[in-house]
Batch of 2 targets.
Target 1
Amino acid sequence: AQSVSQHNHHVILSEAASLELGCNYSYGGTVNLFWYVQYPGQHLQLLLKYFSGDPLVKGIKGFEAEFIKSKFSFNLRKPSVQWSDTAEYFCAVIISNDYKLSFGAGTTVTVRA
Amino acid sequence: EAGVAQSPRYKIIEKRQSVAFWCNPISGHATLYWYQQILGQGPKLLIQFQNNGVVDDSQLPKDRFSAERLKGVDSTLKIQPAKLEDSAVYLCASSGGLLETQYFGPGTRLLVL
């Protein structure tokens, strides 16, 4: 079965610090990769996605992620976080012939003003 | 554009009772998903519909859970009878197709006492 690992359960950092959240998946074939975010009191929404092409993907609110196929990774980055980035972040994967979206356990990010 | 609607937002029941959740997807979206999100975990797919047909229900506990999507639009998810371990947030999502971005509703938070 497909599995998605997110390395950090909870990350606390100060405004203007850089953020990197790790995500690894266990499938060796073609995958579609996603990062979703859930702000406090809001529903899950898409930050960015990778289907094919340039492995460096840019999303909303200054986030980007890099697909490294050899490492089965899709890490999320933001060079300078804001207090409003406080949220829970989920990495998710679809195997191309499976169509099921598998989520990691999520990483809670707390940004201190 | 209206998002995915779900109701109720909160439900408290006693074990062995039954409960039903309703979902209205984004207009025109052919694919509809139900997820279960237990506290501290990522969402887990329960069932996936393409129009009014089931694409995948391999992770649906069919002895107590059932779901239908009448006329390929709205969907209901039922639990009968409920167990304590069913306490979770039940998320509905929809997409334009099987590999397209999924848009999530606000979820129904279920507490089984």
Note: The longest strand of chain B covers residues 88-95.
Target 2
Amino acid sequence: EAQVTQNPRYLITVTGKKLTVTCSQNMNHEYMSWYRQDPGLGLRQIYYSMNVEVTDKGDVPEGYKVSRKEKRNFPLILESPSPNQTSLYFCASMLSTNYRDRDYEQYFGPGTRLTVT
Amino acid sequence: LAKTTQPISMDSYEGQEVNITCSHNNIATNDYITWYQQFPSQGPRFIIQGYKTKVTNEVASLFIPADRKSSTLSLPRVSLSDTAVYYCLVGRMNRDDKIIFGKGTRLHILP
């Protein structure tokens, strides 16, 4: 089954304790992205990756890191989490930014609900 | 990506046709228009995408006038399960483009 998986689904942590949220897709997609969703603010893009070893900042990259060493994986790293990073996080993937049809058909993971106390 | 404007919320009744309009006055020549649906605590799901005129699939129709400065997502005969947030995105990805979802339209279907 084609899918995007995220782990963990729920995480409660304390300020300053480094954490990683994993994201994996099995569709051989080139493009991957991380979003956070907060009440009243909608979905905001954190980082995206056009392909392996290529990453770029989205709208709200501060406090986050990403890496893209393999095509299928795109982990989100919070080196020193703070309470304002409490949010619902979504990973997404898309076939290719050069694909003529369905340029914007992103496939989303189930989400990771993070609480930082 | 071009800035979009959608109604914040809409109510409708089961069995009705629902039309959600998105304004995108600054749409560029190569931009596509894409709509997503999101249920609470789930990731958005692609609904439909179009460039001009009309596109129809098994879920919805997308109407795009000639000037392409707006688009209308049409959901035929809605049911309670269509209650969700609907996002309109406009743009064409390139290396320097971020994706901006905006706040979407919260559609509430009443029995």
Note: The longest strand of chain B covers residues 84-91.
